[in-house]
Amino acid sequence: MSRILVIDDDVDMCLLLKRFLTKNGYDVALAHNGKKALEELDNNEPSLVLCDFRLEDFDGKELLIKIKEKYPYTPVIIVTGYSDIKVAVDVMKLGAHDYVTKPLFPDEILLSIKTALEKTSKTPESPSVVSQDDDQKNLNKGKTISSGPYIFSDSPEFKHILKQIDLVSPTNYSILIYGESGSGKEAIAQEIHKRSRRKDNPFAAIDCGALSKELAGSELFGHEKGSFTGALNQKIGSFEIANGGTIFLDEVANLSYDIQVALLRVVQERKMRRIGGNKDIDLDVRIIIASNERLLDAARKGKFREDLYHRFNEFSIEVPPLRDRKYDLMIFARHFLKLTNDELHKNIKGFSPEVEAIFKSYVWPGNLRELKNVVKRATLLCDTDFIMPTVLPFEITNFSKLQFVEAAEETFTSVAINSDPPAPVITTYPTATTSAPEPVFTKSLEINEHSLKGASIDAEYEMIVEALRKANYNKSKAAKILNVDRKTLYNKMKQYKQFNSDL
């Protein structure tokens, strides 16, 4: 039986909700203030929280933040007597599942509770390596909501993003999307457009990072014939093309100061003028912008106009990087595999468990764009039923080793700058044959090889190398194997010069 915690300082409302929800098969706990609600959450974590927005000791937003910090997967439905779109936007941004206004209607509140509990029951557990037998079944796992090679999974992160999209799409709010390069910001902008009242009008996407200072104004606002050297014809700009619809400006922080000034006028007055033109053009366009850096930070550094930032920041959406969405990783990988199979007329069934483990240990700095390209390359090279590690790029299959070598080179370069010239180097090579080259470790200690101290150094050195290999070059794990702390291991490593001539 699902347990619901009702938080309301109105005792009569609490009792009414308890009788109603109990009749409908729920176990109900009551709290008349925020402090007792947090105690109840700690003692008996409920399946769902139904919380009034205004309490005597807590503001609804403040209590919502505290609940979500400790119990991020517990759905919270906010109840209020004030129908305010700003409040709705704020609580949804903070992670509320739903927002309902008083008076409460039985069918409405039951539907909201049922929907929240159903979604929570599907919340994924920690990801595990999927067997080969399951690969074909899982190729189409995930919910495709956008044209092109993009899907939204049913992970908690994307459930929240979908809820935000549902909430903001019908409005005319300007939207700021934050996310790393390749994380799918344009696909989210397209989805917002599709769900808006402007869906039958144009959607124009502009990569501001690819626009030169000289051409940015012409690309965005257009120009008249003869307005500058090379303007042989009239050009219609992207804002004019998107009139009545939506314009998406990606990496907007790259625009020059002059263009930002012109953009501010467009945002404030909804008017623009082509370069070289003498007539204003009225605009009815929704603006969605995206950035991989915080615009407020850019404004404080003088790179972006703060007044323009505040004009844009009516609503913001955070797109988490792929490395923080391990559950999504293989869903996207299988989706990209299906698309590439169709493109290349191949029938690769899935990924080997070794490949899945490699994928999940990699950090994906290029996010979905990088994952897509890796899957496309592997599918092209694959001549077996399942994609194997041998068809993956070297930098992915050897990621942990490369990270170790880079860190070691940085450490030892720093040491070398402040030390005497190294003694002659004695090199030891790995004896085992491996599918990929391992780091080669070298000693540079000036010690008689036949001395007792030299033998001790050799033994210590070999133990460190062996522990590092066993720990897959993770220094913290290696330190545990050697039963020393991480700092001691670092100090020992500084006694040896370390490099890999093959990398």
Can you walk through the features of this model?
By secondary structure, the protein is of the alpha/beta class. It folds into 4 domains: 3-121, Response regulator (Rossmann fold, 3-Layer(aba) Sandwich), CATH 3.40.50.2300; 156-318, Rossmann fold; 325-397, Helicase, Ruva Protein, domain 3 (Orthogonal Bundle); 399-493, no CATH class. It is globular. It has helices spanning 11-23, 34-43, 60-70, 85-93, 106-121, 132-138, 156-168, 185-194, 213-221, 238-241, 257-269, 295-300, 306-312, 326-344, 353-361, 367-381, 394-397, 399-417, 452-470, 475-482, 486-493; strands at 3-7, 27-31, 48-52, 76-80, 98-101, 175-178, 203-207, 246-250, 271-272, 281-282, 286-291, 315-318, 350-351, 386-387, 426-427, 442-443.
The overall number of domains is 4
- Beta-strand segment tally: 16
CATH architect. name of the largest domain: 3-Layer(aba) Sandwich
> CATH class of the largest domain, please?
Alpha Beta
What fraction, in percent, of the residue positions are helical? 40-55%
